[in-house]
Design goal:
- The protein folds into two domains: about 240 residues, Thiolase/Chalcone synthase (Peroxisomal Thiolase, Chain A, domain 1, 3-Layer(aba) Sandwich), CATH 3.40.47.10; about 150 residues, Thiolase/Chalcone synthase (Peroxisomal Thiolase, Chain A, domain 1).
- About 35% of the residues lie in helices and about 20% in strands.
- The chain contains 13 helices and 14 strands.
- The strands form three sheets. The chain has a ten-stranded mixed beta sheet, sandwiched between helices. Strands 2-3 form a two-stranded antiparallel sheet. A two-stranded antiparallel ribbon has the order 11-12.
- Helix 3 packs across helix 6 and helix 7 packs across helix 13.
- It is globular.
Length: about 425
């Protein structure tokens, strides 16, 4: 028999706040984290805006000597993981650390380190490249460093599936606990790729919004006038526990993880499959895995990137999955405020979904001004909404045709 799995703690580093209260308050109040890029000179780029993390103090979570040996994406991940453990009330000295695992992914990894060290190679030669270059850059190192930092010695892995990374990580960690291989998993995603090369690449692909004069209105999922996504950065980490383990230590339960589905489009490098058929299969699988009917889902935290194809095809996928019920459930995209955190998106959005269930309130899709005939669902426009949420879904869809969906539900004994 599969074990029940619950969420007992969350930690976040994000463009709208580096602690859970600030993050959640800002989402519910529709506050945008998008602004002009400050970390480098973007004046020559078609897109000059992004959702940067502000006022982040990595030294609050790691020793200074470690900061020189870790990329920014790892620092985000370690910080969010430590906050999540504290939020869950887990004392690592009082648990069996061999039964505590880590599953934290990154879509791209240490791009800042890569760019800096390549510059060193060209300007100063190979002998000046840092001996820490490889371990700073590789994308699994968030999971590795979180394990080292916390002492978690259980299952340790990482997903790398572009923008589906965070949701794959949470879903895979859920299954690890469900089948009895761990009691606790530190799971989610982390990303720090607002860099000259990444911005240039996404600009070349014409994937980004160029609404440079109105940065806070640039990310507008499902709106007719959307013109591309906005890059974001940060980390979202959840503490998943077997229900028995959580109850035994008297933990506060935020929500229950009920189902997980994933699929591949087998279609295109960057575009979703026509009519979102791959996404629909992942959603259906997650609902079935949760033992629920489509009518049981009250809210979907959509992938909702603010790109032409994603928003249209995700809407179609929701209709395929839910039929007439698609028009009765609420859908919102918190990317309208956070931007698109790429590999971290699924972790951050799983947190938003869990908090929606905890507080029975739905964060809005901001900047929703002009309805698109192709996107005709209830997108909770511009203002958060109190609502009964028995079960909710979070979608992530990545380049390469990766689709991942998790279903969370209100915890009941």
């Amino acid at each position: 028999m599969n074990r029940r799995v619950v969420i007992t703690g969350v930690g976040v580093v994000s463009p709208v706040g580096n602690d859970i209260k600030t993050f959640w308050d800002n989402l519910l109040n529709g506050k945008s984290g998008v602004d002009h890029i400050t970390s480098f000179d973007a004046s020559e780029y078609p897109t000059r805006i992004a959702a940067e993390v502000k006022d982040f103090r990595p030294e609050d979570f790691m020793e200074r000597k470690e900061l020189k040996r870790t990329d920014r994406f790892v620092q985000f991940g370690v910080a969010a993981a430590r906050m999540a453990l504290e939020h869950a009330g887990i004392d690592m000295d009082k648990v069996n650390t061999e039964r505590v695992g880590v599953y934290v992914g990154s879509g791209i990894g240490g791009l800042t380190t890569w760019e800096q060290q390549h510059k060193t190679l060209l300007e100063k030669g190979p002998r000046r490249v840092s001996p820490f270059f490889i371990p700073m850059m590789i994308a699994n190192m968030a999971s590795g460093q979180i394990s080292i930092s916390t002492g978690a010695r259980g299952p340790n892995s990482s997903a790398i599936s572009a923008c589906a990374t965070g949701t794959h990580s949470v879903g895979d960690a859920f299954k690890i606990i469900q089948r009895g291989q761990a009691d606790v998993m530190i799971a989610g995603g982390t990303e720090a790729t607002i860099t000259p090369m990444a911005l240039a690449g996404f600009c070349a692909a014409r994937a980004l919004s160029t609404r440079n004069d109105e940065p806070q209105k640039a990310s507008r999922p499902f709106d007719k006038d959307r013109d591309g996504f906005v890059m974001g950065e940060g980390a979202g980490i959840l503490i998943l526990e077997s229900l028995d383990h959580a109850l035994e230590r008297g933990a506060d339960i935020i929500a229950e993880v009920a189902g997980y589905g994933m699929s591949g489009d087998a279609y295109h490098l960057t575009q979703p499959a026509p009519e979102g058929e791959g996404a629909a299969r992942a959603m259906k699988e997650a609902v079935t895995d949760a033992g629920l009917a489509p009518e049981d889902i009250d809210y979907i935290n959509a992938h909702g990137t603010s790109t032409e194809f994603n928003d249209k095809f995700e809407t179609m996928a929701i209709k395929t999955t839910f039929g007439d019920h698609a028009y009765k459930l609420a859908v919102s995209s918190t990317k309208s405020m956070t931007g698109h955190l790429l590999g971290a998106a699924g972790g951050v959005e799983a947190i938003a979904t869990a908090l929606s269930i905890r507080d029975q309130i739905i964060p809005p899709t901001t900047n929703y001004e002009t309805p698109d005939p192709d996107c005709d669902l209830d997108y909770v426009p511009n203002q958060s909404r109190k609502s009964e949420i028995r079960a909710a879904m979070s979608n992530s869809l990545g380049f390469g045709g990766h689709n991942a969906t998790i279903v969370l539900k209100k915890y009941e004994e």
